Amino acid sequence: MTKAGTTVAAARDHARAVRLPRRRGVELALIVLAVLLSVYGYCAVGLARTGTVPPGAVGYGAGLGVLALFAHVAVRIRAPHADPLPLPIGVLLNGLGLVLIYRLDLETPDDRAAPAQLVWSTLGVGLFIAVVLVLRDHRALQRYSYVCVVAALVLLLLPILFPAVNGARIWIRVAGFSIQPGEFAKVLLAVFYAAYLAANRNALAYTGRRVWRMQFPTGRVLGPIVTIWLLSVGVLVLERDLGTSLLFFGLFVVLLYVATGRTGWIAVGLLLAVLGAFAVGRLEPHVGGRIEDWLHPFATIEAGRGPNQLSQSLFAFAAGGVLGTGLGLGHSTLIGFATKSDFILATAGEELGLAGLAAIFLLYALLVERGYRSGLALREPFGRLLAVGLASLVALQVFVIAGGVTGLIPLTGMAMPFLAQGGSSVVTNWAIVALLIRVSDSARRQYDGRDAP
Amino acid sequence: MTEYGGGRPMARYIRHACAFCVLLLAALLVNAARVQVVQARVYTDNPANRRATIARYQQPRGDILVGGAPVTGSLDTGEQLRYERTYRDGPLYAPVTGFASQTYGTTFLEHSEDGVLAGTDAMLSPLPLWHDVTRGRSRGGDVVTTLDRRAQQAAYRGLAGRKGAVAAIEPATGRVLALVTSPSYDPSSLSGNGEAVASAWSRLIHDPEKPMLNRAVRQTYPPGSTFKVVTAAAALDAGVVTDLDEPTRSPDPYRLPGTRTRLTNEADGCRDASLRAAFEWSCNTVFAKLGVDVGVSAMAGTAEAFGFNDSGLRIPFSVSPSTFDRHVDRAQLALSSIGQYNTRATPLQMAMVAAAVAGGGQLRTPYLVERTTRHGGETVEGAGAHPARQVMKPSTAARLRELMTDVVEEGTGTQAAIPGATVGGKTGTAQHGVGNSGVPYAWFVSWAQAENAMEPGVAVAVVVEDASANRGEISGGGDAAPIAKEVMRAVLGL
C-alpha cells in the first residue's frame, strides 16, 4: 500500500515537470461565459418580441448553469487533465440551440419544443456525467467493440418495425417520446470501427496488391468491415435516411485512411460513393427529388407552385446578411416544416447573420480540432482512432446538414449537433463530448512533452 | 516516430484527416458568405420571398389627414401580414385616399405617398443611411391633405348616390378642397388578404356602376356649355369680341362651315346676341361661330393654357388629360368650341377653368397634399411652391367674372346663388352618345367670393350623369348647381 503510494507520488513528481496545466479554471470561466451568452440570447428574444425580459430567464439561466456546473464538477473529479474546451463549447451550442428553439416556439404556441429539449439536454448532460464518472479509461471500450456493433445494428433495425414519419423510417415512439435510435448507433459504430481498425490496421495496411501507387487491401481483412458497412448503409437506405448513411460512409472512409494511411481507401471510398449516389438517386424518387431541388432550388417557384423548403431556407439565410436581423426578428418560420430541427441553422443564419453563423461554424471547428488534437497526443491506436472518429462524426454531421440547408450539397435530413430539436441527437452529442473529454484526459495525462498536444 | 501499434506515422494521417474536416467547415463558411452576402440580393428580390411584404405590414401605416383628423387607420390583425388598413368614411374619401390592399396594391394617395405612409421614404429617417445600417424602418409618416371636410361632405351628400363627381379648388393657391366621386365604395373592403377581399374585389370591378372609377380626375366628359367660358376667354383675348354688349353678328341657326348641318339653340333670342346675352342664355350658335372666328390655334392655345391636353398633371396622383382637338376642320372646331366633338374634360379640369377666372386669369396647379409629416407631426416636406401661370389677360378674367356672375344672378344658374357672396357660374348640359342619344350630363362650374373677402375662396365643378333621369329634366342649372352651391357654402362658411 505504502509502496504503491510512493510509486504514484514519484510518478506524479516525474510527470509534473512536463505536465500540462490542468486548465479547469479556464473551463469554468468559459462555461460561465457560455451560460451568460445563452441567457443573453434568451433575453434578447424576449426583448425583441415583447419588449420585456422573458419571465423564465432566471430559471433558464440557473437550469443551464447548474447542469453545466455538475458536468464541470464531474470533469474535475474524474478527468482533471481533460481539454478545457469541449465542455464549454457543448454548453454554448446547447444553450444557443435552446434559445433558437424557444424563439421558434413563439411562432407556434401550440407546439412547444423547448421544454422537451431542456429535458433531453438534462438527460444528455446526465449521460455526460455518467460517462465521465463511470468510464475511467476509454480503452475499456475496446473490449466491447462487438457488443457495440451488435447494439448499433439492432438500434438501426428497430425503426423498421415502426411506421414511417415524413417518409423516413428512423423514429420509434416510446411513451410519447420519439427516439431516433440511429443517432445512438453513430457513437457505437465509431467505437466499433476504432476498435476493429486498431486491431487490424497493420493487416489492412501491409497486405493486398498494389495498383499504380495505390495499395488495395485483400478481401480477407476487408470482408468483415465492408459487410458491417454495407449492412448499416443498406438498413439506412431502407429507412430512407440518406444523411445518416452518408455520415457512416464518411466516417468509415476517414477512419480507414487514418488507420492505414492508404490513399487507395480514398479512391475506393469515392468510387463507392459515386456508385451509391448514382444508384440511390436512380432508384429512390425521394432522393432523386432532393438532387433536383439542389440543382434547381427555384424550380417550384418558376412552376408557380411557390417556394420549396430549400428556397425558403436560402431566402432566410440571404435575409440575414452579414449581421442578421437580430434574435426574434427574422421570418425563418416561412420554411414551414422542420424549422426547429433540420432547418434550425436557417434561423441562426437569418437572425444572427453571417457573423453568427461564422461563430457557430468556428465552435464546431474548434470542437473537431480539439478532438483531433487529443488523437494526436494519444499514443495508442484505439484512442487515436476513437478521438478522430468522434471528431469526424461531428464535422461530417455539421457538413451534411449545414451544407444541405445552405444549398452546398443536396439536402438530407439530419440534426445539427446540439442546436437542433431532437432528444436522441442531443443525448448522443453529449456522449460524444464526454468521450472526447475522457480521451483528452488520457492524452494530456500521458503527455510526455514529445509532441505538442 | 515510433508508435504502440506499429511503425506507421499515424499522426500524419490524422493531420490530413483533420485538414479535410476543417476544409469541409471552411467550405460551409464560404458557401454561407455566398448565400448571405454575395448573392443575397438575388434571394431577397425573388418575388416568392415574402419578407418584403411582411416587413411592409409589420408596422401601422401612416395616416391620411383631413382637417387635422385622420380618415384612415390601421388594424392589428395578428396575422403574418400584421397591420391592415382601415378607413373612416371610406366611400367619402375613396377618390382621395384610394385603397391600400395587401392583395391588390395601392391607388391614389395611398399609392403616390406610399413611401411616407409605409415608412420607407428616406426623408423619414433620422440620419442619412440610418436604416441601411440598423435594418430598421421608420414609423409610417402622415399625409396632411388640403381637403375641406365640410366641402367634401356637402359634395358627397349633394350627389346622393347619383353617378357624378365634384371637384373644388381654392383659386388663390390651387389647394384641392373637395374631390368626390359617386357611386363610391369602401376601400377597407379591399385592405386584407382573405377570401372576402377577393370577392369584394371581383364584385367591385364587375359592378356596372364602376364604383372604383375616380370620376373627378380619371373620367373625362364632354364639357358642353361650361366650355363656353374657355371659348369666351379665347374670343376676348384674341380681340374677336371687344365689347360684351356689342352684337356678335351671328346667325341662328348657324350652319356649320363646309357642311349642311344647322346648329340650333335651346333658348330664343340668340340671333346676333351680344356675348353677355349669349353667355347668359348659353347660345350654341354664337359660341360655335366665335370659336371658328378665333381659329383653331388660338382656341387650342387658350384651352391648353387652362390645362387641356396636359397629360403630366399630378396632384400628386395623375389626372387624366382633358382634351381639345387641334386637328379639326372648321365645322369640328365650331362643335369643339361648344364643348362637343372631341372636347372632353375631367371635373377637376373644369374646376381649374372656374379657378382661373376667379383668380384674375392666374391659374395655380392644383395639389392635394399640404405636407407630409413624421409620425410625431414634424413636417418632412411641405407643399412647396406651386407656380401660377397666366391663362388670360386680367381684363378678360374680369369680364368673364362679370359674365359668370350674370348667369347666377339672372341666367341659367340662379340655383347656385348664395346670400352674402358673389357667385359666378356656368351651366352645361352635354350631349353624348351616338347621335346624342345618351342621357346628357349635367354640368355646373362656378366660383364664389364672400362679401367681406378679398378674392374668391372657392372654384368648383360638378357633373351629374344620371341614367335614371328623364332626358328633359336633367340640366346643369337644375341638377348640378345646387350641389355646387352647397360645396361653396361649406367652404365659405355661409
UniProtKB/TrEMBL annotation, chain A:
GO MF annotation list: lipid-linked peptidoglycan transporter activity
Membrane topology: Multi-pass membrane protein
Pfam families linked: FTSW_RODA_SPOVE (PF01098)
A cellular component term, taken from the record's GO annotations: plasma membrane
Keywords annotated in UniProt: Cell cycle, Cell division, Cell shape, Membrane, Transmembrane, Transmembrane helix
Major localization class: membrane
Record GO biological process: cell division; regulation of cell shape
Subcellular location: Membrane
Transmembrane stretches, start-end: 28-51, 57-75, 87-104, 116-135, 147-172, 184-200, 221-238, 250-280, 314-337, 343-364, 385-409, 415-437
Protein name: Cell division protein FtsW
Organism for this UniProt entry: Streptomyces lucensis JCM 4490
Source organism phylogeny: Bacteria, Bacillati, Actinomycetota, Actinomycetes, Kitasatosporales
TrEMBL record, chain B:
Recorded superkingdom: Bacteria
Domain Penicillin-binding protein transpeptidase stretches: 164-488
GO annotation, cellular component aspect: plasma membrane
Entry keyword set: Signal
Location of the Penicillin binding protein A dimerisation domain: 61-143
Gene Ontology biological process terms in this record: cell wall organization
First and last residue of the signal peptide: 1-32
GO molecular function, one term: penicillin binding
A Pfam family recorded for this sequence: PBP_dimer_2
PANTHER family: PENICILLIN-BINDING PROTEIN 4B, PEPTIDOGLYCAN D,D-TRANSPEPTIDASE
Name of the protein in question: Penicillin-binding protein
